[in-house]
Amino acid sequence: MAQVIPAPTSGAAHATWTARRRRVAAAVSSLLARSGVAEMGESLLRVYAHILFSRSPAVGLLVLLATATVPRAFVFGVIAACAANGAALLLDLEKDAVRDGSYAYNALLVGLGVAQSFTADGPAVAVALLGAAACVVVTAALRSLSGLGSGGAAGLPVLSLPFIVVFHLTLSTSAFSGLTLAAHAQAPPAIEGLPAPIALFARCLGGLFFLPRADAGALVLAALLVHSRIAALLAALAFAAVLGLASRWLSLPDGALDVLGYNAVLTAVGLGGVWFVPSASSFALGLSGAVAAALVTAGAMAPLARLGAAPLILPFNVTVVAALLAMRRRARDERPKAVDFLPGTPEQNLAYFRTRRARFQRSPHGVSFRLPFRGTWTCTQAVDGAFTHKEQWRYAFDFQVMDEGGQAFRGAGSAPQDFHCHRLPVVAAADGTVVKVESSVPDSDVGAMNLEQNWGNHVIVAHAPGVYSMVAHLARGTLKVVEGQWVKRGDVLGLAGSSGRSPEPHLHFQLQSTHKLGAPTLPCSFTDVVTVGEEARLWPSLEPREGDAVRSIEADEDVSAYFGFTCGDTWAYRVGAHVERVTCDVDVYGRLLIRSEDRAASLFYGRSDDLFTSFDAVGDDASVVHLLRAALPRVPLEGSASLRWADTLPARRFRAVALRALADFVAPFLPGDGIEMDLRMRREGDLLVVLGESRRRDRRGEPLVRTRAELTRGRGPLRVEITAQGRTRAAERIQDADRKFTVSFGEETS
């Protein structure tokens, strides 16, 4: 029998009691962790959550409770799910997939189906166990065919096809296996007095688990709301559409509306928020898919009935697979945008996509272009320029080098060599293959133009199908590349000159869709550009305007040393009495990450020659990796103390829980939802300090969010700190006796 610890009445006794309770809780947690019971329980709950596209144990618990409204369904469901997880482990299948419920959710459906279709006796238990094992095998086969977990090309989800196959086999062989059909498959709703549409909606959600009851459906709806408000909204809209469709145009037998409903609901949630980033267009797709799934269900009922089968959840599978395959044939992955990253809840998918778009703003051509020169140059003619950048050649840029007085030349400027840019290196803006070169055109005299050889000496590089870059007016005989040569970004192509239609030395750059000289230009912006003026500012993407002095990031080896994380480095983090360890690692796809050892969370990051970038933190909101992501979002690895830059944090994470839940319902229809941050860095002794402030201010004029990160050379973050809504969370690194560095986290209120 468990011992109950009584609550004391005095303050000192209360503190002692609290500490004692914590020690007991920690001991119980430790015991459960060592025994593996906690992990098995969590894995079981994830099985239940999986059917609602969730991996949350809390969601799984609510679904488990829904099945408990019918005890025999609860027992058969647990038996089938546990048997499937056991079979998957015996077969040594992917442990991560077993842990998140991927191998057992189809078996769970089989167990529930057997419980509700047949008398709960020995043969039924045996069939549920065999069906669970069969589901594991079919799931593994389909995962191999689709490439899931192995980087395959197909990448289609397994969905509930294993359940459909196994359960129909179970039904067709029931006469030979000793199963007795039960008369309790359609239990009446347990909640009376609900408005008819709501009761039907609840029955529909319960029907997904063979429990067409209002009480079970209410718990499933609660699980859906906990998982995602966007998914719940999609489900409600899809059911409303089906209800309208059925009342006006369809004549359905008893119970058929439940089947139409849950197929439509799952289709809408999957297409509207799981496989596509939530938006108005994804809602349109999801609801169109819901109507299609309902029509497929209605149309399939009679033919399947003649075969002795039922639609079950087959229409959802057919509709979703058809939609995913069809959407892959689009010329552009837009409206709706497919989820091409590690998926989470619909809200997480939306926040990640918006933050990524706001932070990086990649080229519409799928290639990132850097400035085609070294050092600081000034744009002397931009898009729609006054001289030659017009009509089909409007998207082009001319650059020259200016001195402190704003002059492009020294002395009288009467000869090409008087100009500061003359014979400076011109580099490849992106990786590609050289497809056309010209190097024999002589430099024009200053003020003169060679109109017969308009582009002068030039290099055209192919970067992607339909995407070419050209640099022109290079100096004669200075080209460093030949046709067919592969070049990397930053490789020298030639030296700046004044050949062709060039009254004075300058560099001409443009993008075009073909390799032909003089082809129409394409829109272009450069990535990671620093504008030089009263302050140096880094832009993730910039289309230079006339007069802009621009340069690339000037990497500094000393600053780079502060971000020299080594795979295998492990730090410990402390929040109150809890300790969280993280490890710098590389996953199976070659991505760098900081992985929590104690919480299900990771921070993905990248490091190039000139940038450190935290891409995204996923998993447990309480993990320290979210603090690292906010305090070290993107840092240029150059030593200039005057450099400023901007980045974006997802606003959702900084909202109160209630406000966040309400905002989730309308978030897909808003243009953006990020917090723009201004960042800078400075040296404080041996520390490199990165500081951030949100542009948005509160009523007192204070930034809504402040961040601070302190790093030590070669050892990563020493301290990180985030202040939002008056609360500060800080992480401070301390040195232990073994001279291994740890990071402790505490929470304080300002």
Automatic annotation (TrEMBL):
Membrane topology of this protein: Multi-pass membrane protein
Boundaries of every M23ase beta-sheet core domain copy: 424-515
Broad class of the protein's primary localization: membrane
Membrane-spanning intervals of the chain: 73-91, 103-119, 125-146, 158-182, 194-211, 218-247, 259-277, 284-302
Record keywords: Cell membrane, Membrane, Transmembrane, Transmembrane helix
Subcellular location: Cell membrane
InterPro entries (UniProt xref): Ammonium/urea_transptr, Dup_hybrid_motif, M23ase_b-sheet_dom, Urea_transporter
Pfam family, one: UT
Gene3D superfamilies tied to this protein: Ammonium transporter AmtB like domains, Glucose Permease (Domain IIA)
Zinc-finger as UniProt keyword: no
Superkingdom field: Bacteria
Family: Belongs to the urea transporter family.
Protein name: Urea transporter
Species of the source: Sorangium atrum
